Amino acid sequence: MGNALLPAVVGHRGAAAAAPENTLESLRLAAEQGAAMVEFDVKLTADGALILMHDEELDRTTTGHGAVAATVLADIRGLDAGGWFADAWRGARVPTLDETVGLLEKCGLNANIEIKPCPGREVETAAAVVACLRQSWPKGRPWPLLSSFARDSLAVARDAAPEIPRGLLLWGKPADWSAAARSLDCASVHCAAEDMTPEWAAEIGRLGYGLAVYTVNDVALAARLRRWGVDSIITDDPAALLGAAAARD
Ligand code: G3P
Ligand code: MG
Q1: Of 12, 57, 125, which is best to mutate to test ligand 1, by the most ligand atoms within 8 angstroms of its C-beta?
Q2: Smallest CA separation from ligand 1 atom 6, residue
Q3: Which residues contact 138 (CB under 8 A, 6 or more apart)?
C-alpha cells in the first residue's frame, strides 16, 4: 500500500526515538534507517526566521528558556538542542527550514512539513513557509507535503501555492473534518492513532484522501492500521517499523 504521496513509514520529527527531535541529526538518522520521508515541525522566531521546533517554549528541547515567538534566531542558534536527549547528541543546533531543505536534498528524503504556528501567527507562518519553498526547494524534486492543525495556515498555503500538496491534521474526529479537507483542497488526512477505526479509514479512502496516522511506535499496532487501509504510519522509530514486514509496503 502507501500511495504516491505517502510512503508506508514516515519518520516523526526525524527519528525521534533515537535522536533529538527536529534536528538535522535526527533527520539524517531517519534517512540512514531507511525512511523515505520525514515529518518535522516548523514555526517562526521573533525576527521571522523559520526553524524546526515542536513546542512554543524553548525549555524542553534546548538549553534556552521562554517563548520561541519572543526569541530571535541568533539567540536560538546559540542554544544546544541535543544534550537534553543524551550527552552523545550535545552540540546539535536548532535548524532553519532553509538548511533543512539542503539536507533533505542531500539525503534524498521527502518531507511532510508540519506548519506549527505559535498562536496568532497562523497566517504569517504559512506565508513564510511557502515563500521559503518557492525560493529554496530544488527544481524537479517532488514538493513536500504541508500539513497543519491550523486551518488558517492551510488556507494560506492553498491560496498562495495550490500546487504544493496539503494534509489536514486532526486531533479527534471533528464533525466537519471532511468539509474542511474538501474546502482546503487537501490531498491527505492525518489522524491520531487512538482515534482511528476501520470504518473511518475506509471512509477516508473512499473519499480519495491519503491517510496518515500518528504517532505509532508499536509494530503490531502499525500492522493493524495498515490492514485497515492506512497509507502511512508516522513513527518515532522508523528502524523498527521498516524492519517489520507487516507494517511496510
Ligand atoms: O504530524 C503528525 C504529528 O507530528 C502531529 O502532532 O504534536 O507530534 O506535532 P505533533
Ligand atoms: Mg508534528
Answers
A1: 12
A2: 214
A3: 101, 105
